[in-house]
Design goal:
This is DUF1806 domain-containing protein. With 114 residues, the protein is mainly β. It has a single domain, classed as Protein Yojf, Chain: A (Distorted Sandwich), CATH 2.70.180.10. 11% of the residues lie in helices and 54% in strands. It has a six-stranded antiparallel sheet. Strands 4-5-6 form a three-stranded antiparallel sheet.
């Protein structure tokens, strides 16, 4: 993965507009936090192969970035994104890494299930 390049990621996001896509969204501080301080609450969220119809998509910020995709009945949103890759299958893979290089958030879109 490489640091987010706004224009390229924005173009990739736009390619999913007015289409159905599969979403992978994951957040975590879990394993990274609780062993350092037992009082830190472990949190996380995970969805894989969520089938969504994307009406609009936007990348915002100056780094770390935020991404949002609008669906008919609401939004899916992630922030803290730092890196991206468009893989050999054309999937848009966005990730946010902390200062120690640990994954904190992943937001991925695909035209087929992951």
């Amino acid at each position: 993965m490489i640091p987010i390049q706004q224009e390229e990621v924005s173009r990739a996001l736009q390619s999913y507009c007015n289409k159905s896509a599969y979403l992978h969204l994951e957040t975590t501080n879990g394993a990274y936090a609780s062993h350092h301080n037992e009082k830190v609450m472990t949190v996380g969220a995970f969805i894989r192969n969520g089938h969504i119809d994307i009406e609009r998509a936007k990348l915002a910020g100056n780094g770390p970035y935020r991404v949002g995709v609008k669906m008919q009945l609401g939004w899916v949103y992630a922030e803290g994104l730092t890196h991206y890759e468009i893989d050999e299958k054309g999937r848009l893979l966005l990730a946010g890494y902390d200062e120690e290089g640990r994954l904190a958030v992943a937001f991925q879109l695909s035209n087929e299930p992951f």
